[in-house]
Amino acid sequence: MRPNRILMIAALGAMAALAGCTTSSEQIFTSSYVSVKDAGYQLPKIPIEKVERKYHRQVVAYRTDEKPGTIIVDTKEKFLYFVMPEGRAMRYGIGVGREGFEWQGSARIAMKREWPTWTPPSEMIKRQPELAKWRTGQPGGLSNPLGARALYLFNKGGDTGYRLHGTPEWNSIGKATSSGCIRLMNQDIIDLYERAENGAKVIVK
């Protein structure tokens, strides 16, 4: 290889590092989507081979000024990053709000719930009258839209109404289909739930 080409490759690598880009994966957890028994529920295996590899849970290099434990949601790229020490992050594939239901800003995790009850907001019931049967709440379970876990986001104004939550609809990951909440595969939200603490900062951009 010619010397000038070697210098060019080195320069490109340095530029990427300075830009704070996510680089290649350090560890990928493709084998973690097996059937799991959790709180009496048998979560089905996810056909992870049908999900783009970039959306599989993985540890990546990630440069940020935010402290470890912060969650950063990149709605454009459909990634959620849990910031770890030493310039690394756990990255999860996500599904985000469809057009007209997007949300951006900063919040804090105020509550964490396992197999949460889902209560559709009145606006959603108006759009989908068939959901009226869950006006007082749909109990947690395998068909519940919030999946196996939910992290409730609050800001200075109180409950934002937005959640980081699981979903039985694994094929929605990498797409904009939700009513604004950030959804993860159930096996991923269980992993994130164990890592994230109450009070953790969440940035949605």
UniProtKB/TrEMBL annotation:
It holds the Pfam family YkuD. Residues 69-205 form the L,D-TPase catalytic domain. This is Lipoprotein-anchoring transpeptidase ErfK/SrfK. Pathway: Cell wall biogenesis; peptidoglycan biosynthesis. GO terms for cellular component: extracellular region. One of its GO terms (molecular function) is glycosyltransferase activity. Keywords: Cell shape, Cell wall biogenesis/degradation, Glycosyltransferase, Hydrolase, Lipoprotein, Peptidoglycan synthesis, Signal, Transferase. The active site is at residues 165, 181. InterPro entries: LD-transpeptidase, LD_TPept_cat_dom, Transpep_catalytic_dom. CDD domains: YkuD_like. Residues 1-19 form the signal peptide. Gene3D superfamilies: L,D-transpeptidase catalytic domain-like (2.40.440.10). Belongs to the YkuD family. It comes from the Bacteria. GO terms for biological process: cell wall organization; peptidoglycan-protein cross-linking; regulation of cell shape.
